[in-house]
Amino acid sequence: MSQNDKPDTVVIKKYANRRLYDTSASRYVTLDHLRELVKEGRDFQVVDAKSGEDLTRGVLAQIIFEEESKGETLLPVEFLRQLIGFYGDSMQGMVPSYLRMSMDTFAQQQAEMRERMTGAMGSPAASMQMMEEATKRNMAMFEQAMKMFTPFGAAGEGAAGDTKSAAAKPGGKADGSDVADLRAELDAMKAKLDKLAGGDS
After folding, report:
1. CA atoms within 13 A on the CB side of 165
2. What is the pTM of this model?
3. What's the angle, vertex CA 35, arms to CA 114 and CA 98, rounded to 5?
4. Helix (H) or strand (E) holding 11
5. Under a CB-based contact definition with an 8 Å cutoff, are residues 23 and 56 in contact?
6. Which residues face 20 on adjacent strands?
Protein backbone atom coordinates (compact mmCIF):
# COMPACT_ATOMS: atom_id res chain seq x y z
CA MET A 1 0.00 0.00 0.00
CA SER A 2 1.44 3.37 -0.99
CA GLN A 3 1.61 6.34 1.33
CA ASN A 4 -0.92 8.21 -0.85
CA ASP A 5 -3.60 5.55 -0.32
CA LYS A 6 -4.24 6.74 3.25
CA PRO A 7 -3.78 10.51 3.55
CA ASP A 8 -4.31 10.44 7.34
CA THR A 9 -1.44 8.03 7.86
CA VAL A 10 1.48 9.54 9.77
CA VAL A 11 4.72 8.89 7.90
CA ILE A 12 7.72 8.10 10.08
CA LYS A 13 11.12 8.12 8.38
CA LYS A 14 13.79 5.82 9.77
CA TYR A 15 17.39 6.83 9.15
CA ALA A 16 20.54 4.71 9.01
CA ASN A 17 21.43 5.77 12.56
CA ARG A 18 18.07 4.28 13.66
CA ARG A 19 16.60 7.67 14.45
CA LEU A 20 12.90 8.10 13.71
CA TYR A 21 11.51 11.30 12.22
CA ASP A 22 7.79 12.12 12.43
CA THR A 23 7.04 14.05 9.23
CA SER A 24 3.65 15.23 10.54
CA ALA A 25 5.23 16.87 13.61
CA SER A 26 8.57 17.72 11.96
CA ARG A 27 10.62 16.27 14.80
CA TYR A 28 12.60 13.22 15.84
CA VAL A 29 10.68 10.75 18.00
CA THR A 30 11.20 7.54 19.95
CA LEU A 31 9.49 4.16 20.00
CA ASP A 32 7.48 5.41 22.99
CA HIS A 33 5.96 8.06 20.71
CA LEU A 34 4.93 5.39 18.21
CA ARG A 35 3.48 3.29 21.04
CA GLU A 36 1.34 6.26 22.06
CA LEU A 37 0.17 6.71 18.45
CA VAL A 38 -1.01 3.09 18.51
CA LYS A 39 -2.87 3.61 21.79
CA GLU A 40 -4.52 6.73 20.33
CA GLY A 41 -5.68 4.72 17.34
CA ARG A 42 -3.61 6.76 14.87
CA ASP A 43 -2.30 4.97 11.83
CA PHE A 44 1.35 5.36 10.90
CA GLN A 45 3.81 3.94 8.42
CA VAL A 46 7.54 3.64 9.03
CA VAL A 47 9.65 3.90 5.88
CA ASP A 48 13.36 3.80 5.23
CA ALA A 49 14.45 7.41 4.71
CA LYS A 50 16.73 6.45 1.82
CA SER A 51 14.99 3.62 -0.05
CA GLY A 52 11.36 4.20 0.96
CA GLU A 53 11.02 0.55 2.01
CA ASP A 54 8.13 -0.11 4.40
CA LEU A 55 9.57 -0.98 7.83
CA THR A 56 6.32 -0.75 9.82
CA ARG A 57 6.01 -4.45 10.67
CA GLY A 58 9.55 -4.66 12.05
CA VAL A 59 9.15 -1.51 14.15
CA LEU A 60 5.83 -2.71 15.61
CA ALA A 61 7.49 -6.03 16.50
CA GLN A 62 10.30 -4.06 18.17
CA ILE A 63 7.76 -2.15 20.28
CA ILE A 64 6.19 -5.44 21.39
CA PHE A 65 9.64 -6.85 22.24
CA GLU A 66 10.46 -3.83 24.38
CA GLU A 67 7.13 -4.02 26.22
CA GLU A 68 7.66 -7.72 26.90
CA SER A 69 11.23 -7.13 28.13
CA LYS A 70 9.93 -4.50 30.59
CA GLY A 71 7.65 -7.05 32.23
CA GLU A 72 4.42 -6.05 30.43
CA THR A 73 3.96 -9.64 29.32
CA LEU A 74 0.95 -10.43 27.14
CA LEU A 75 2.27 -13.31 25.05
CA PRO A 76 2.48 -16.72 26.78
CA VAL A 77 5.64 -18.72 26.05
CA GLU A 78 3.63 -21.62 24.64
CA PHE A 79 1.87 -19.28 22.20
CA LEU A 80 5.20 -17.82 21.05
CA ARG A 81 6.62 -21.30 20.46
CA GLN A 82 3.60 -22.34 18.44
CA LEU A 83 3.68 -19.10 16.47
CA ILE A 84 7.37 -19.63 15.60
CA GLY A 85 6.51 -23.17 14.52
CA PHE A 86 4.13 -21.81 11.87
CA TYR A 87 6.87 -19.93 9.99
CA GLY A 88 7.45 -21.87 6.79
CA ASP A 89 4.53 -24.20 7.57
CA SER A 90 1.81 -24.88 5.01
CA MET A 91 -0.72 -23.23 7.34
CA GLN A 92 1.29 -20.00 7.66
CA GLY A 93 -1.01 -18.08 5.31
CA MET A 94 -4.04 -18.74 7.54
CA VAL A 95 -2.46 -17.51 10.78
CA PRO A 96 -2.55 -13.70 10.22
CA SER A 97 -6.26 -13.59 9.35
CA TYR A 98 -7.12 -15.88 12.26
CA LEU A 99 -5.14 -13.79 14.75
CA ARG A 100 -6.69 -10.59 13.40
CA MET A 101 -10.20 -12.03 13.81
CA SER A 102 -9.44 -13.22 17.35
CA MET A 103 -8.04 -9.85 18.43
CA ASP A 104 -11.00 -8.00 16.88
CA THR A 105 -13.36 -10.21 18.89
CA PHE A 106 -11.34 -9.66 22.06
CA ALA A 107 -11.34 -5.86 21.57
CA GLN A 108 -15.10 -5.91 21.00
CA GLN A 109 -15.61 -7.80 24.25
CA GLN A 110 -13.42 -5.32 26.12
CA ALA A 111 -15.44 -2.39 24.77
CA GLU A 112 -18.68 -4.05 25.88
CA MET A 113 -17.20 -4.69 29.32
CA ARG A 114 -16.22 -1.01 29.69
CA GLU A 115 -19.78 0.04 28.89
CA ARG A 116 -21.21 -2.38 31.43
CA MET A 117 -18.62 -1.32 34.01
CA THR A 118 -19.66 2.31 33.60
CA GLY A 119 -23.26 1.41 34.41
CA ALA A 120 -22.29 -0.70 37.44
CA MET A 121 -19.85 1.68 39.11
CA GLY A 122 -22.32 2.28 41.96
CA SER A 123 -22.13 -1.39 42.98
CA PRO A 124 -18.61 -2.74 43.76
CA ALA A 125 -19.94 -6.29 44.03
CA ALA A 126 -21.54 -6.09 40.58
CA SER A 127 -18.35 -4.60 39.12
CA MET A 128 -16.21 -7.41 40.54
CA GLN A 129 -18.62 -10.06 39.28
CA MET A 130 -18.55 -8.51 35.81
CA MET A 131 -14.74 -8.49 35.75
CA GLU A 132 -14.62 -12.13 36.82
CA GLU A 133 -17.12 -13.10 34.12
CA ALA A 134 -15.17 -11.17 31.49
CA THR A 135 -11.91 -12.78 32.62
CA LYS A 136 -13.40 -16.27 32.39
CA ARG A 137 -14.86 -15.49 28.96
CA ASN A 138 -11.56 -14.13 27.66
CA MET A 139 -9.60 -17.08 29.05
CA ALA A 140 -12.07 -19.48 27.41
CA MET A 141 -11.62 -17.66 24.10
CA PHE A 142 -7.84 -17.83 24.47
CA GLU A 143 -7.93 -21.56 25.26
CA GLN A 144 -10.15 -22.14 22.22
CA ALA A 145 -7.67 -20.26 20.05
CA MET A 146 -4.79 -22.34 21.40
CA LYS A 147 -6.72 -25.57 20.74
CA MET A 148 -7.36 -24.48 17.16
CA PHE A 149 -3.65 -23.96 16.64
CA THR A 150 -2.59 -27.24 18.23
CA PRO A 151 -4.09 -29.64 15.63
CA PHE A 152 -2.27 -27.81 12.83
CA GLY A 153 1.02 -27.93 14.70
CA ALA A 154 0.66 -31.57 15.80
CA ALA A 155 1.86 -32.97 12.48
CA GLY A 156 4.94 -30.76 12.52
CA GLU A 157 5.63 -31.06 16.22
CA GLY A 158 9.36 -31.28 15.69
CA ALA A 159 9.38 -28.01 13.75
CA ALA A 160 7.47 -26.33 16.55
CA GLY A 161 10.10 -27.24 19.10
CA ASP A 162 8.40 -30.45 20.31
CA THR A 163 5.87 -28.42 22.31
CA LYS A 164 3.03 -30.43 23.81
CA SER A 165 -0.37 -29.27 24.92
CA ALA A 166 -2.27 -30.55 27.93
CA ALA A 167 -4.68 -32.29 25.56
CA ALA A 168 -1.83 -34.46 24.26
CA LYS A 169 -1.07 -35.85 27.74
CA PRO A 170 -2.54 -39.21 28.86
CA GLY A 171 -6.15 -38.72 29.87
CA GLY A 172 -6.13 -35.17 28.45
CA LYS A 173 -5.25 -33.72 31.86
CA ALA A 174 -2.77 -30.95 32.49
CA ASP A 175 0.00 -31.56 35.01
CA GLY A 176 0.55 -29.36 38.06
CA SER A 177 2.83 -26.92 36.27
CA ASP A 178 0.28 -26.34 33.50
CA VAL A 179 -2.45 -25.61 36.04
CA ALA A 180 -0.13 -23.25 37.91
CA ASP A 181 0.77 -21.46 34.68
CA LEU A 182 -2.88 -21.09 33.74
CA ARG A 183 -3.72 -19.77 37.21
CA ALA A 184 -0.84 -17.27 36.97
CA GLU A 185 -2.10 -16.06 33.59
CA LEU A 186 -5.62 -15.73 34.98
CA ASP A 187 -4.34 -13.71 37.96
CA ALA A 188 -2.31 -11.48 35.64
CA MET A 189 -5.33 -10.85 33.44
CA LYS A 190 -7.44 -10.01 36.52
CA ALA A 191 -4.80 -7.54 37.63
CA LYS A 192 -4.81 -5.88 34.20
CA LEU A 193 -8.61 -5.69 34.25
CA ASP A 194 -8.49 -4.14 37.73
CA LYS A 195 -6.01 -1.57 36.47
CA LEU A 196 -8.18 -0.94 33.37
CA ALA A 197 -11.28 -0.47 35.52
CA GLY A 198 -9.44 1.94 37.75
CA GLY A 199 -8.30 3.98 34.75
CA ASP A 200 -11.84 4.28 33.36
CA SER A 201 -13.40 5.43 36.61
Report:
1. 19
2. 0.52
3. 65
4. strand 10-14
5. no
6. 14, 29
